[in-house]
User: Fold these one by one.
Assistant:
Number 1:
Amino acid sequence: MNARPASAGDRDGKAAQDASATGDAIAGAFGRAVRRAREARGWSQEWLAERAELNRSYLGEVERGNAMPSLVTIAKLAHAFELSASALLSRCEGELAATEP
């Protein structure tokens, strides 16, 4: 049986799968970074949500990696932690690097 060359549709589908997997990994790493920062301060989700002006259930989704936060949400969380957005994202990068093979 001869293998057929990959079509553009096949490549696009693979690229979409890869992007989704990457997005899931980033969302998970960001969520872990937020949870670690919150727990290090001894804060409840309710307290952080109030400080960041976010819904507590949405914050839970972010921490579990089930929601991809917007830049506004990242900025609100960073402000609540008294960090810069880049410092919070740097923690996310550290979480992401820790999970890479």
Number 2:
Amino acid sequence: MAGNREQAWRAWGSAAGDSADKPFGRHSSVLSDVAPLQRSSIVKKLNPDQKGALRLAERFGDRLVCVRYRTDPESGRRFTTAEIVVEERAPTAPAPRHSLVRVGWKETELRRAIKELGGVWLHDKKLWQVPRDAVKQLRIGKRVVREGA
């Protein structure tokens, strides 16, 4: 029996090409109607190291997050779904929550408004550190100075 399964996998793989496209069950039925899957309820959730998920763990390796067994209440069909990691990225630095703004010494009304909205004077840079939403609210985007400048 195991020999027949192995021959079927090899035959299927040579026709399809990529091993990631191989069916993982006893039969490869293409799901033509997704409605049963969408209305199905989760019966069991397994981690990759649990019995019942080991076959998929072999196939997907470390990319496998979990396996879910689902059933459709109307037709009684059972589905096995696998949650896998498709893409992984390094975290990006969040955008700064403030801007540096140049304000003239005689612009007292603007300075007062900036202070009221949480702006702080940075004496060493001789610039105002203003929250981004305050820059938008006061419409002073043209006065923003880049951090390195």
Number 3:
Amino acid sequence: MPRPERPSPTFKVVALDFGIKRNIARLLVEQGFDVTIVPARTSADEVRALEPDALFLSNGPGDPAAVEGVQETVRELVQELPTFGICLGHQILGLALGGRTRKLKFGHHGGNQPGQDLATGKVAICAENHGYAVDAESLAEAGEPVRITHVNLNDDTVEGLAHEERPLFSVQYHPEASPGPHDAAYFFSRFREMVARHKAGEAVTGAQVAAGSDL
């Protein structure tokens, strides 16, 4: 079956590379993004010099709190750019918003993890491979208006978050998983929608996009 045509116009996205998978870049390109991948410790000014329309925070291994010199950069850039994070990128976004992460006893590993979208109640079978999670209570304590959008039904850990005032959202599991499952691939089209609405001058938020809301 032929792939659908790439949507237009093209938007420029800078991806901070914490261990990015090739399939993530491919799916961003399919959504009409011109993708520039830069090292994880690229400064905020260096990112701005590329004149992106959006920021992507990639997946990667290990303890998010141990990734030095990144939280401050992300905290600065998310004030300006629509942002989407996956896996480690999701955790780093949580830290940049003032939250904390915690080590899981066993972690989530495999292609059969149940992730529930709290807006719709639907459960996706997800690919996961991580040993840390964003602490939900810490986000509330930080005072940022962040909504928990997805949870893992095995242990109720945070699997997704979205900002209620800014165009930011993230997901813990791997919507780009290849060869699958592909239940969560819709996140890439949600990202494009959010960037397009932001570029059109709309005060769109991550929470609105996560809920499928135009309000």
Number 4:
Amino acid sequence: MPEKPKVFVSYSWDSKEHQEWVKKLVDDLSSKGIEVNFDQKETQRKTTNLYRMMISAFKDYDYVIVVLTENYAKKADNGEGGVGFESNLSYPFLNKDEDKLILIARGDLKKVFPMHLKGYYAIDFTNSEDYDNKLQELVNRIRNTSDKSNFPLDQSKEHKKSYVDNYEIPDIREITDIEKEKFMKESFIKIRDDLELLFSKVKEKNKNFEYIHEKVSSTKSIFKLYRNGNFIDGIKMWLCNLFRNTTYDLCFSYRDNLGNDNSFNERFTFAATKDNEFRLKYSFSSNFFNDDNLFNSDEIVNVIWENYIKNVIKS
């Protein structure tokens, strides 16, 4: 870890008081020799694309501090705005580099954790009288000088490197229906938000392009695309269960099928690799997906963009 670690603070704009509290936290961390950034600094310095700023934070900073509140949890679970976007960015780090995320909490610990962060440890800043002690715990965590006995067991294990670490250990655990459903919902939110970001970028570059995003429910969205005020196409995506399975599938319809939930152009089911990494597998495709590959959310967005949306917008 560098002598002066770089930290980004992620939070929801719950209230003026909460924003001031976050600003004080940033100032206090800065006074202890930690390079800290957050949206208020960025927007004061220059015109800022907030989504680009969030991506940069997860890529370029040593740590991302996530300030958990009840409102943050609601926005994360519903995929709303910047909090929803940040939540999607955090998924890869939870799987491969969870120490990059430092969770701190303000409020009822039973309500501040969004679904994808339940079970993780958070430094509890709820009691203002204990602020200084919690601040020091946070500083120690950032500088990797924590008394690790204060952390949950899975965060404090010390492991000496051994030749057996090179052995391939099979993952034989059973994947539950709850895990499958959670993954399908997270995939829906990730793809939906990426499409929203793509269309907003098209709109920035092309003044004659417009789109309407209808969030029909938490599991169904319709994007309607317009050029010069005239409808050119649409995409509907929803979590479907046409065959009464134990978990959802992810369905897509284009243009002529927007109003019929019993008809779709693409359907993806849950799948897992031999290492039990979760993926999406197409089970029906009338257009672009015609092999046995397993896909992550980014790959699905890329295929739909390159093979369908981009052509529709240009034609």
